[in-house]
Design brief:
Length: 225
């Protein structure tokens, strides 16, 4: 769950695995609360982990990212804005040195990865109890998030202006229960969504715009941190 657990659970060992268990990170310097979110930087040289106390750790993956012993914790970020808020989602900006952080108490902000200070706030979604996730478009222009109100929420990434999704009387973009997670296709204007409960289909929503701009942006270099 997203809240703090038992002392044993608070060991919070982040597992690195791909088909086999490669090792665990930070046995002696791991998070003190449950780890709810992980995200690699675009080039894989950094790993970001977020916990139920609102603490974010930054790890250097080293020269051998498949070797857990090569990971070194660089920073422990205790941002005042995140204190006591359970982190539910981390997403690295594809073109800027920013980290999109979602957390309980309706928290969704972009953090500058150089200063680790919040630079932008996104509002309107509901994240209070469930581990709701957020994502970015591959070109870095939009932030999209699930919500406990069942609706998909989208913003202009740079201005934080809420983007109105196109709906009709016959089409509702969302669910009657928590919209838990969203994922953006890397080269198409296509978003996948999912919800809790039985008979909750995985839904796909597409935009008619050309995907060429997204494909070009996905291949472009980003600001390395």
């Amino acid at each position: 769950g997203a809240g703090s657990g038992s002392d044993e659970e608070k060991a919070a060992e982040a597992v690195v695995a791909l088909g086999e268990l490669l090792g665990t990170l930070g046995r002696r310097d791991a998070h003190a609360a449950n780890v709810n979110a992980v995200a690699f930087s675009r080039h894989g040289d950094r790993l970001y982990t977020g916990d139920a106390d609102g603490v974010i750790c930054v790890w250097d993956s080293g020269a051998r990212p498949r070797n857990a012993r090569s990971y070194t914790r660089l920073k422990e970020i205790r941002a005042a804005a995140l204190r006591g808020k359970a982190v539910t989602s981390l997403a690295v900006h594809p073109t800027h040195a920013q980290l999109i952080v979602a957390a309980h108490q309706n928290f969704l902000r972009a953090f500058d990865l150089r200063t680790f200070q919040p630079v932008r706030q996104y509002t309107g979604m509901v994240i209070n109890r469930a581990p709701v996730r957020a994502a970015m478009s591959p070109d870095g222009q939009f932030v999209v998030s699930g919500s406990e109100d069942g609706e998909a929420h989208m913003w202009d990434a740079d201005t934080a202006q809420h983007v109105q999704l196109k709906e009709t009387e016959d089409v509702f973009i969302g669910y009657s229960d928590n919209l838990m997670a969203v994922a953006w296709h890397p080269t198409e204007h296509l978003v996948a969504m999912c919800s809790y409960g039985d008979n909750r289909p995985i839904t796909l929503w597409a935009n008619e715009d050309s995907a060429s701009a997204l494909a070009a942006a996905a291949a472009a270099p980003d600001d390395r941190v």
